[in-house]
Amino acid sequence: MAAAAAAVLVSALLPASVQAGESRAVPGVVAIDAGTGAVRQIAALDGFLTATSTAAPEKIARGYLAAHRAVFGAAAAGLAGLRLRKDYVDIEGTHHLSFTQNVGGVEVVGSGVKVHVTGDGRIISVDGSPLAGLPASLRTATFTDGGPGRQVVFGTADGPRPAREVIDMDEGYLSVVDAADGTLLSRRSLVANDHATTWENYPGAPSGGTQHTVDLGRWLPAGSPTLTGNAAHVYSDVNDDDAAQESEEVRPGATTSFDFPFTDFSAQVGAPCSAQRQCSWNPAVPNSWQVNRAQNATQLFAYLNTWHDHLNAAPIGFTRQAGNFEAVDGDAVDGQAMDGADTADGLPDADHDNNANMTTGPDGTAPRMQMYLFQRSASVLAGNSGDAADIVFHEYTHGLSERLVVDAAGNGTMTGDQARAMGEAWGDWYGLDYLVDKGYEQDDTIDGDVREGDYILNGRAVRSEPIDCPVGSTEPVCAGTPAAGAGGYTYGDYGRIRSAGGPEIHADGEIWAQTLWDLRTTIGSWKARSLVTRAMELAPADPSYLDMRNAILLADRVVDHGRGQDRIWQVFAARGMGVNAGTDGATDTSPAEDFTVPPKV
């Protein structure tokens, strides 16, 4: 929608009490879903959509939707029948209300509306893509193969159809199939794969690289026979069958504790292993990984619980109500250490090395984290991804974004190129922010010393540039790539960072990661964590970089009363995401950059 039209429509959506005396420097957002033609998001970037109210949040939300039915076009007819699925209150007191559409009491997948209401009753934004023309009921349909899944309604070009939604954690997909004939209607991958690493940092690290005694009492029940607690169950799934055999569980040692020393293989393996970056197995010797099997599973268990607690606490607030991972809700992390280590006669096969992944389903479904061994090469250590804090934290953070950036039905929506690239960037940013804040990694005055993948890649970053490369940097490590240029990346570099050319989510995610590091530098770590997380909750489905920029601006209105607006705009404008930047959505791999901030009024 054109900026002028958006300005008029946003103005019409604001009550007179809010409009009075205002001159709007930023027109706001009225985005339209290209697929459905319905409103995708409504927000006023320099204020709120409504004035304060003492009414209940659901009443405020329904009242706003009813009062502005004309804005939703043909989809407005179905708004009266919306069902409140969830009223989640974040740690700042904001209510995130998710309303689903239903046909005959059966949920319509992929549609609905989310309304975000502050603690004092002001609407921050509205997002979703409600379907038009839904009937009161559908003919009864039965599943032809008697398979698992829940009954849903799926909107097609020919109208809504009875369907079922199936979660396959083994294959890592959430699928919707036609109830009558089993035709696949949609499929979404739940898996996030990566090639990164690091002990409270990693074994041998200058800070946080030495084993020390840790009390597991806060994470394990007294006398627990396995590594099974409220936040995670960890075992060594060396045959990769996604089940914990007796031989794969890790049990307390002779002292009834999980005290397993790490054996350094550096002398056996040789370079690039060293005292500063120690190797954990010998790829030339089958089953050598067994020496550190119990140690690594225990290390992974400690990492998973550490990260659960960090994300749960303020200012991030990834709590049970937000959809975090806990056994009490049936979705503690299924942590698979050394996954597939014994798939090739005592060694990992080609599908089970040099990687790690996190598969995250909807709330109530246990996510699965698979951590692999790394094979030795000229620049890669014979290490274990479960020994590396930055890899574990990165993978876990995929679960954070999958649970917070959701549609009205609670399903993750990170599907477009830009959205998935931000998923990779968040994984890097949250983990490195923590490690620097704790003093395990250093961020000094010289550009380019905060790197993802420092341990496994023997001091080389897994990304093309460190996360702390500002725009215009002349440091050699911030030299970038030929197509993108040097000195920190901007929005116009999207699709040009990968050396081979073309878009790639890990490479293009560097733009977003570096931007968030600039934000952290500008407003501080604590406030940046708060705004970045609250923005996930406020984001529309399948967000672009500009959608998420807007969500951070909206979050600042809630968290800091809008005091950070100018500084936030300056950060994003410096990275090419200024007020006149443009994109066709999350699938756009050639966005238009702009370096201007909104005019002063």
From TrEMBL:
Database matches in InterPro entries: FTP_domain, Fungal_virulence_M36, Peptidase_M36, Peptidase_M4/M1_CTD_sf
Source lineage: Bacteria, Bacillati, Actinomycetota, Actinomycetes, Micromonosporales
Protein name per Swiss-Prot or TrEMBL: FTP domain-containing protein
Originating species: Paractinoplanes durhamensis
Domain FTP: 81-129
Region (Disordered): 580-601
Keyword Secreted attributed: yes
Keywords: Hydrolase, Metal-binding, Metalloprotease, Protease, Secreted, Signal, Zinc, Zymogen
Entry-linked Gene3D superfamilies: 3.10.170.10, Neutral Protease Domain 2
Superkingdom of this protein's organism: Bacteria
Signal peptide boundaries: 1-20
Entry's localization field: Secreted
Family statement: Belongs to the peptidase M36 family.
